[in-house]
Amino acid sequence: MQKYSRNSRISAITKLLIENPNKIMSLNYFSEILNAAKSTISEDILVIREVLESLEMGRVETIAGATGGVRFIAAMGEKEEKAFKTGLCEMLRDRSRIVPGNFLYITDIMLDPTIVHRAGVVLASKFAKSKADYVITVETKGIPLAYEVARYLGVPLIVARKNSKVTEGTSVTINYVSGTTGRLQNMGLAKRTLKSSSKCLFIDDFLRAGGTVNGIADLLNEFDSELIGIGVLVDNKEVTKKLPTPYTSLVDYHGVNAEGEVIVEGSTN
Amino acid sequence: MQKYSRNSRISAITKLLIENPNKIMSLNYFSEILNAAKSTISEDILVIREVLESLEMGRVETIAGATGGVRFIAAMGEKEEKAFKTGLCEMLRDRSRIVPGNFLYITDIMLDPTIVHRAGVVLASKFAKSKADYVITVETKGIPLAYEVARYLGVPLIVARKNSKVTEGTSVTINYVSGTTGRLQNMGLAKRTLKSSSKCLFIDDFLRAGGTVNGIADLLNEFDSELIGIGVLVDNKEVTKKLPTPYTSLVDYHGVNAEGEVIVEGSTN
């Protein structure tokens, strides 16, 4: 079997760690793939840990014990995070984003992998210690971002549906008042989706008064489960919120002013 | 400014390449971040290219010229792809997946990042040379997979909506016959979603007779754009297809037999 140089092993281990965020990977696993002693792999990982830390590209943690190993925790440096938020604000200030009804068009942003990917790193890093079992969102626009956060936290995603589907079996459905439309809506989750006594993080594109969030909390209650955190891309600061748990956001939105300018700034929460 | 060892640079460059799939990254970019000469970076990249190729973990391509640089192309080795498909089939054979109406419950699979991530690599690698401008899907279940394919191809995602939304401005809507329900449905895309004359790949969870695919092709026509490829996780082999363009899938589904067994096998297309 082929032997690899330290350089080569470091490249391969970096790739495997980064592609399996928040998953504990045993030294044996790397040892087998790369045909090298565990002590050698250990030294390789030390190099990776140091450079990623020095460049603020995330953390490599060691977990001791029989089921131990190493895992990669995604994170973004403070300076890069600030620049990313500033860039987001610049995009959002484009007046052509204002659509009839004074809504802000952000679908393109929520579907652009280069943005969603980085937004996912930022939100996941805020919840790195949350011990969430699932990330939950409601269809449709927040799904890619929620998926990225779930991927970085190494947990499955759950999507509450606005119309229960024939292909999902028995569902639990609840009513809630949507902040966008002011109307009574319903959303549901297939019964088999969720283990009971789960801790869930809610991720979405836009946070307004919290109608949807409270709906999600109620829905999770029906599964004896709990909403433990909220993360969104844009926080609408124009409305007073009533939320069951604290939240974090990337951008604060203060509406459109008399000159027709979109007022946004990077969030500091 | 700090200097880094070759080992350290290789770890950092590997991470940056892998996190920006199919994006051309200039040597200058790495040179600045890592405070090293371009010739040194070039040698680092050679090591990365060789080990990733040797371990069948994807390709690093060099693009010559003024706008040149290197890019990472995601790919999975033949053996790993086969094992991944076999694992998928085992999951699908679980009889509790059969829900009333003889549908197969695959929502959990379509929302599990560890599976979607790898399925995304496989599908993206089949379309690596397609020069697609966008990946398109229709809400809801296929969104994470379509997002991953878009991310690996370095293009934006588009999601056709079954109900046009107030926050998206003017939409184009078309009618189509859904293969699942046999009913006339409609789906739409906001006018601002798509540049005209675009080439699009359709990615979804399940492919049946092709009603949805033909609807997508019609919708793209309205934007003077073209459907150039189709990729799905599960191909339902029970129905005759009428498709506007060839497709690729990961798993072939042959229905449920008289003993109530789910008949699936890895696709070979």
TrEMBL record, chains A, B:
GO terms for biological process: negative regulation of DNA-templated transcription; negative regulation of purine nucleobase metabolic process. Keywords: DNA-binding, Transcription, Transcription regulation. The keyword DNA-binding applies. InterPro entries: PRTase-like (IPR029057), PRTase_dom (IPR000836), Pur/Pyrimidine_PRTase (IPR050118), PuR_N (IPR015265), PurR_Bsub (IPR010078), WH-like_DNA-bd_sf (IPR036388), WH_DNA-bd_sf (IPR036390). It holds the Pfam family Pribosyltran. It comes from the Bacteria. SUPFAM superfamilies: PRTase-like, Winged helix' DNA-binding domain. Residues 6-73 form the Bacterial purine repressor N-terminal domain. Residues 128-245 form the Phosphoribosyltransferase domain. GO terms for molecular function: DNA binding. The keyword DNA-binding applies. Belongs to the purine/pyrimidine phosphoribosyltransferase family. PurR subfamily. Homodimer. PANTHER family: HYPOXANTHINE/GUANINE PHOSPHORIBOSYLTRANSFERASE, PUR OPERON REPRESSOR. This is Pur operon repressor.
